[in-house]
Structure formats: C-alpha cells, structure tokens
Amino acid sequence: MKKIDKIALAYLVGTSLFYGLLIVVQKIGLNFGLEPLSFSFSRSAIIVFISLVFFSSQLKSIKYIKKCQLRDLLILGIASAASILILFVGQNITTAVNAGFLIRLTPLFVLPLAYLLLKEKPLGSSIFFMLIMLVGTFLLTTHGAMIVPHLGDLLIILVAMVIAFQNVFAKKIMHRVSTDLVIFFRVFISALLIVVLIPFLLGSQSTNSLFESPFYVLVAAILYFLSVICQYRAIKLVGPFIATAFFLSGSLLSALFAYVLLGEALSFMQWAGAIGILLGGYLLIKKNLIGKELAI
C-alpha cells in the first residue's frame, strides 16, 4: 500500500472512530438530562472557538478568495447548519431506530450527485460493497426489524441528501480552494449559525448545557471537530463516495463503544450486521486503496 493510501485509510478510520465515539458521548450527556438543542448550541459555541484557533494560520488567505469561491464556501456552511437543525426536528417526530438507519442512506445520494457535479462514477464492485455495509447497518441499527414509517422519516432522508450534497460539493470546492479552508468554513459557518439561530428560536434556556455539563459538551465538540477534519481530508484523497460509504462503519464503532461504556448488549442480528459492515468496509478499502477505481 502506498503512503498516500495509508494516509487516506488513517483519515477514513479516524472519521469513523471519532464520530462513533461522539454518538456515545452525546448519548451519555443526554442521559444526564441535557436537552438536545441546548447540547447542540453549547457544542457549536465551543466549535466556533476551536475552529478559529486551529485554523488561525489559514485565516489570512481568506482575503485572496474569489467571490464565487466565497459564495460556494458559505453555501457549504449553511447547508451543514441546515442539516443539523433539520435532523433535530426530524428526530423528534420519528423513532431513534428509523433516524439511526435512514441517516445512513447518504452514500446512495452521493452516487448521482458525484456523477453530476464531479463526473465521478465508481465501478459496480464498490457500489456492491457499499450495499453490503448498508445491509449490515440496517441489521445493526434495527435488530433486523422492519421500519414503521413516520412523518419525520422524510426529514431524516432530506438530511441524508443534504449531507451527500455537502460531501460532493466540498470536493468540488477543493479543486480551487485549500482543504483546510473548506473545512474551516464548513465547521465555522455551520457552528456560528447554530449559535445564533437556536437562542433566537428557543430563547436563553437553550444555552444552559454549557454550564450544566461542560465536560461532555467539550468532549463532544472536540470529537465532532476531529471527525469533520478526518472526513474532509479523506474526501480530498479518495473522493466523496468512498469516504461516505466507509462512514457507515461509524455505526459499528458506536455500538461497540456503547457496549463497553454503557453496557448495551448486542443481539445476534446486530452481530450479523457488524460482520456485514466489517466485510463490506474491508472489501471497499482493498479495492479502492489498492485498485484505485476513482480518478481523484
């Protein structure tokens, strides 16, 4: 495996690792009684600060960005904020099982968007391996039970589509703007909008979690920030489809972390799903980080 392939693999694994742990940390925080939107506000406030500090050396180059590039970066940040807020609304009017699985339909929407915006088309084998991971994710998140439709499901599917657009559009922007600047605008604009909008919509009570449970909020902010950095750098190296498809493995890591940290046992169907995710992820990586199907 070439050096660049090892770096790409490290970013892919890092994305799933940090995001998988993030889900568990947020669940622990919510179990302590934190309100979801309040948690999101406080996490975003910390992310605004972290992104300014982490990318401080990149901020000087903003003045050299063309207006059309700045427009695209702002669209990316706004789309990210919209997906987060719509997700919270959707989760409130559907079940956790439905939301947990439907949000992972994102790779299916990446396929047409990547072809339309980037002219990228993975071979059939990669799509098949992604479907293996998707079936595994279904078994892991639903225990193999059929999903009962809810009104909020449409919003969750919309979020999956918006996230797919973000990943593809980010790669398109990276052709003209540095990856670090793309990441900065993605996390900073998104977090800033959430910090502004949530108190405006819900009032001052939405800011309480930062003071009630600062440890979980801080850890969640750091994990979220690291997961976005790894994901977008992976997108730069291997493209949005492979990066998004491998992201399905995050559900496996969340389940394992929940088992270790929260004592949540896995059923036989969930273990079968875990094996499917591992198998599909292994075949996807083997094919694309050695076979190189995509022209990046």
Strand content: under 5%
In terms of per-residue confidence, which ranges show pLDDT below 50 for 5 or more consecutive residues?
A: none
Q: Fraction of residues in helices?
A: over 70%
Order of helices and strands: HHHHHHHHHHHHH
Q: What form results from the Cα inertia axes?
A: globular
Radius of gyration computed on alpha carbons: 18 Å
- Whole-Å distance between the termini? 17 Å
The overall average pLDDT, rounded, is 81
Q: Helix/strand-derived class?
A: mainly alpha
Q: Please, how many helices?
A: 13
Number of strands: 0
Please state the oligomeric state of the protein chains shown: single chain
The total domain count is 1
Q: Please describe the biggest sheet, giving its number of strands, its sense, and whether it closes into a barrel.
A: none
SSE order and pairing:
Blueprint lengths: L2 H29 L4 H19 L12 H26 L3 H7 L3 H13 L5 H19 L9 H22 L5 H24 L6 H4 L1 H25 L1 H7 L2 H14 L5 H21 L8
Helix pairs in contact: 1-10, 1-12, 2-8, 2-10, 3-7, 3-8, 4-6, 5-7, 5-11, 6-12, 6-13, 8-10, 10-11
